[in-house]
Amino acid sequence: MRPIAVIFVALVLFMPRPVFAQEWTEFASREDGFKVDFPGPPKVQDATFTSEYRYTLPARVYSVERGKERYSMTVVDYNGIEAMGKERVKTCPPGAEPCHGSMNTGEGYWKMDRGGAIVYAAWTFLQRDVKLTHLMWNFMDLVEAQQLQLTSNVDKSRTFVHISMHMHKLYILEATVPAGYPEPGLFQQSMGYVDKDGNGIRYQYVYNDRFPPPPLTGRGGGGGARGAGAGARGGGTP
After folding, report:
1. pLDDT at position 22, please?
2. Cα separation of 221 and 45, whole Å?
3. What's residue 104's pLDDT?
4. Which of 91, 106, 116, 196 registers the highest number of CB atoms within 10 A of its CB?
5. What are phi and psi of 37, to 5 degrees?
6. Contacts of 163 (CB under 8 A, 6+ apart)
7. Per-residue pLDDT, 225
8. 163, 121 in Cβ contact below 8 A?
C-alpha cells in the first residue's frame, strides 16, 4: 500500500493549482487608496455611478468570481462633485431651489449628495429583491462605515456589504455567497486604506469624511490595526 500512497501524494502535489481553492492575497490600489484581500487577482473595470442627486461620477470596479461566490470593490470618486454642482446652477430655472441649493446644501445640492453618499449607497441595496437581516454602523481601520447583511428572496444567497467614505471617495465592498456557504469574513475584515505610495494609513481616532482628517499615528500598515473594527454584531474597537 505504501507505493500507492506515495504516488497519490505526488499526484496531489503536482496538480495544477487552479484545481484547488484560490489563495487569498492582499490587493492594494494606490490610485484608489485601498487594500483588501481577494481570492485571486481582481478584474478591473472603469465605470460610472449615478449619485442621489443625479450626478454622473467616475467609478472603478474590482471584482473576482470564485465558483458561485462573487467579490467586488466599487470605488466612486466624489471629489469633482462640487464643481459639477456649480456648473449645474448655471442652467437652473429661476426659483428652483433644489437645483440652486443654499449655503447648507451647496450649489446643486452637492454637499447633500456627498454627505449622504454612504446612506444612499446602502439604500440602493435595499431596492433589490432581498431581505435585510442586519444593518449597523461600524468602522474598519478607524474609518466609519455602514454594514448590511442581505438574503436573496430568489435563491437564498447571502450578500455582505461594507460601505465607507475616505478622502471623498466612496468604497462599496460587496461579497455574495450561496446559501449554506461560510460568511466571507476574511474579505470584509481585511479592508484598509493606503496613501499614494501604497503605505497603510492609520488614524488616532475614527475618521468621518465630513470633518477634517484626524491625526495619523504612523504609516506602513498600522501594525496590528489592520481590519480593526466591530464584529458582525458587536461594538467598535480601536
Report:
1. 62
2. 26
3. 93
4. 106
5. -85, 125
6. 118, 121, 122, 145, 146, 147, 148, 170, 171, 172, 173
7. 40
8. yes
Q: State the pLDDT at residue 6.
A: 41
Question: What average pLDDT values come out for the chain (238 residues) when binned by 10 residues?
Answer: 43 42 86 97 98 98 96 98 96 87 94 97 98 96 96 97 98 97 89 95 95 81 43 37
85: its cell numbers: 454642482
- Tell me which residue has cell 462573487: 70
Q: Which of 83, 91, 23 is nearest to 58 (CA)?
A: 83
